[in-house]
Amino acid sequence: MGRIFSVANQKGGVGKTTTAINLAAAMAKAGKRTLLIDLDPQCNATTGLGCEPTNSHGLVTRRPLRESLVATYLSGLTLLPGSRTFHDVEILAKGDQGESGVLREHLSDGIDGFDVVWIDCPPSTGPLTQSALAASSEVLMPIQCEYFAMEGLTQMIGLIRDVMQRGGGRLEFGGIVLTMVDASLELAREVEGEVRDFFGEIVFEAVIPRDVLVCEAPSHGRSVLDYAPQSRGAWAYIELCQEILEMT
Amino acid sequence: MGRIFSVANQKGGVGKTTTAINLAAAMAKAGKRTLLIDLDPQCNATTGLGCEPTNSHGLVTRRPLRESLVATYLSGLTLLPGSRTFHDVEILAKGDQGESGVLREHLSDGIDGFDVVWIDCPPSTGPLTQSALAASSEVLMPIQCEYFAMEGLTQMIGLIRDVMQRGGGRLEFGGIVLTMVDASLELAREVEGEVRDFFGEIVFEAVIPRDVLVCEAPSHGRSVLDYAPQSRGAWAYIELCQEILEMT
Ligand SMILES: Nc1ncnc2c1ncn2[C@@H]1O[C@H](COP(=O)(O)OP(=O)(O)OP(=O)(O)O)[C@@H](O)[C@H]1O
Ligand SMILES: Nc1ncnc2c1ncn2[C@@H]1O[C@H](COP(=O)(O)OP(=O)(O)OP(=O)(O)O)[C@@H](O)[C@H]1O
Ligand SMILES: [Mg+2]
Ligand SMILES: [Mg+2]
Asked: At A100, phi and psi to the nearest 5?
């Protein structure tokens, strides 16, 4: 079975969607058959790739998963689009009772033919994120080098440990990604220092710099790797992708 | 009855908590007896003012609300702390069935003696945010001048309209606040232009600039108005506060 990554952090706006899109794109470009699953009712991963959210989420319909998959502009990258209808997403969440029953079943049936799966989670520790974690082999946590981000880390780590201990899944800690790093700011350097001291090896070497081209790419429905291939943001995501692929 | 503001936006990291803390502080300094309610299980508004989250949220305990209120470092600013225990917060949300029963009752009993109440909401359109909206007289929506923020705006406006039409409350649209604006970026100027064209008068004149001092303040448990009173961020929040007070 291929690697299934959840990109998760209850803190808002730390770059979960940006990281999910750009790592999925990087892996597709590296020759992996890649599936990106949009699990967030905001549907940012979907629109950020120039695709349309659906009325009913592929994970709650009765149809086999592959009927809900769509091609993206990038060959090798397939998308399970998000759905804005909250109650759909609540069905998925309730049906799971915090275990990933629905998600894990659907996933295992639907993902033959994919080498790697990326799941973009909403900013919450609720049932959706828990289902994603329980269905995953690894969790990636993007964090910003700011005070509130540090606070939330401990809580997220607690949740991940709970899911691991509940068992039934094969979740391992994938790693912490420092995002939107403005190395000119003392605050950012201090927080990065603290995170590395505290978490050691699970923090990736590659950090994603603050780069307006990364921020502009979704309005063009493209990964930054295609929108601005020579940008610092694009290079950083490629570097991070390689660090992850070498981890196997 | 005093004004009750919800600070809401399902998009993460757009400055809801920063705005709730700094406008509540500005109003307390302007002589208003101010209550800030932390409705987010992340408890950022609580820790950002140097206070402790509670085990059980004041809005779900049987005790009268005022027994759960705590003083902050700032005279005139009182806090109803947040609670990290998700099921507590879920009780509040479920008890409401999407209507603000519990929150609105508790609020109307508990808020005599306050001129203004600020409610910090989590990044979601779920039951917590809906309860807050139904209990409020006005909603303030902070938004960042970036693509995903624009997308989420339409959905939030839809939710606010639903709450208004369900009736029973006295919710009006308070306004849109542009946050973390980096005026040197063309993207920011474009998005600001679009937001003002589209939404007109409901967009506040005052915008909050990107300012690292605003970002550092919570790690000192202070509003930026006390941490860095001469900063551009502090001045902007004071200007916004006055614009809001003149709205009555
Ligand atoms: N490296 C970067 N440089 C500049 N801007 C960035 C960078 N990464 C992300 N952004 C921008 O920051 C904002 C937040 O990023 P994103 O939406 O990916 O975060 P998120 O954690 O998925 O948010 P949410 O919690 O709402 O799901 C977006 O407008 C995005 O384009
Ligand atoms: N004007 C500003 N300049 C610089 N940084 C800012 C500014 N406003 C907020 N920030 C920082 O941006 C981050 C996100 O802000 P904040 O936590 O207030 O957003 P939020 O919408 O409440 O997030 P969430 O969706 O997780 O509740 C925080 O680290 C905060 O300190
Ligand atoms: Mg996202
Ligand atoms: Mg917040």
From this structure: -95, 25
Task: Report the candidate in B197, B174, B54, B166 with the shortest Cα–Cα distance to residue B116.
Answer: B174
- Residue whose pair of structure tokens reads 């860095």 in the numeric block: B228
CA B11 to chain A, closest CA, distance in angstroms equals: 7
Nearest to B10 among A11, A42, A212 (CB): A42
Q: How far is the CA of A13 from the centre of ligand 1 (A)?
A: 5
The CA distance from B57 to B38, in Å, is 9
> Which of B46, B215, B232, B239 best tests ligand 2's pocket when mutated (most atoms within 8 Å of CB)?
B215
pLDDT digits (tens, 9 = 90+) for B128-185: 898 899 899 999 999 999 988 878 888 888 889 988 888 777 899 999 999 999 989 9
Strand partners of residue A83? A54
Report which of B112, B104, B159 is spatially closest to residue B136, judged by C-alpha positions. Answer: B104
Provide the pairing of β-strand A34-38 with A70-71: unpaired
Q: B111 CB contacts (<8 Å, ≥6 apart)? A: B1, B2, B4, B35, B65, B117
- What is the per-residue pLDDT for B2? 87
pLDDT for B60-89, tens place per residue?
877 888 899 999 999 999 999 999 886 666
Alpha carbons A91 and A56: distance in angstroms, whole number: 11
Backbone angles phi, psi at B71, to 5 degrees: -75, 150
Pocket test for ligand 2, best of B18, B144, B207 (most atoms within 8 A of CB): B18
Determine how many CB atoms are found less than 10 A away from the CB of residue B189: 14
Which positions ≥6 away from B214 have C-beta within 8 Å? B18, B22, B208, B224, B228, B231, B233, B234
Mean local confidence (pLDDT), A184-196: 91
Position A46: which residue type? T
Helix or strand holding residue A79 (H, E): strand A77-80
Contact A9, A124 (CB under 8 A): no
pLDDT at B58 over 70: yes
Residues 6+ apart with CB under 8 A from B50: B72, B73, B220, B221, B222
Torsion angle in degrees (nearest 10) through CA of B199, B205, B211, B215: -70
CA gap A102, A95 in Å, rounded: 7
CA distance A134 to A88: 19
In the chain, the amino acid numbered A67 is: E
Scanning the structure block, which residue is given the tokens 């291939």?
Answer: A229
- Which tens digit of pLDDT belongs to each residue from B33-52? 999 999 999 999 999 999 99
Contact status, residue B28 vs residue B76, Cβ threshold 8 Å:
yes
Q: Which of A86, A92, A125 is nearest to A106 (CA)?
A: A92
